[in-house]
Design goal:
- This protein has 285 residues and is of the alpha/beta class.
- The chain has a single domain, classed as Ureohydrolase domain (Arginase, Chain A, 3-Layer(aba) Sandwich).
- It contains 8 helices and 10 strands.
- The strands form 2 sheets. The protein has an 8-stranded parallel sheet with strand order 4-1-5-10-9-6-7-8, with helices on both faces.
- Helix 1 crosses helix 8 and helix 7 runs parallel beside helix 8.
- The chain is globular.
Length: 285
Amino acid sequence: MKFNKVDLSFQSSKSEYDEANVVLFSAPLDTTTSYRPGTRFAGNAIRVESIGIEWYSPYMDKDLNDYKTCDIGDLTLPMGDVKKSLDIIYNTAKSVVNDNKLPMMVGGEHLVTFPVIKALSEKYKDLHIIHLDAHTDLRDEFMGRQLSHATVLRRCHDLLGDHRIFQFGIRSGDKHEFEWAKKHTHLQKFNLFGLEEIVNKIKDKPVYITIDLDVLDPSVMPGTGTPEPGGITYKELLDAIKSFTDLNNIVGADIVELAPMLDTSGVSTIVAAKTLREMILLLHQ
């Protein structure tokens, strides 16, 4: 599959596809959102607002201009057709992975993580996931759907099996999800305690990082569909991303669940854009 960079790109992510090491794309799926919709607008909102942040990260001491990143833009997804949309995301991720490039995806609702994990798991048989989120996302079905943003980590578990999903910041979910997690995932409630130990434990494994931005407290990130009070600070998120530099084999990442129109100040979109800068630089390590 041949991809081209887009004119409206994220900051300095203007490399041609063939020369890029990291490929950025957004997956505007917003079909199974269970509360407040709007995540399909996240990708291009972040691109527009990225003009407001610097290319240089003082946290990473790196500059996006020094690295080859291609932004191929929003995928064209058929509105309302979940299966076909997931197939398009899967085929995109599969092509990027087969070309020995790292996928950096912007959601969309959290369900978009599943097809990327499917593509990566076919190449990396020992794939692990680090998952930062307010929600468990471990239901087997939600509102009659097995494919939902509330079931996405359960579907990833179907692919990976026990003890390869590490969840942090979780503070919302059905009781049975927390009970199920005790046997099948590593779940840290409320905070990021123990993250550095997990990073050290799996540092040589292939790792995918998925960040649902509602892991942040709504005072920091109100522009999301299902905000949950009691979240982490932005400084804690930056510290987590910094700890990920100890991972030796990061194979892809995403940030999901920004709904830009739910925060008319635009601050949530800036938070997402700054997080995306840090994650792209992390993938380039």
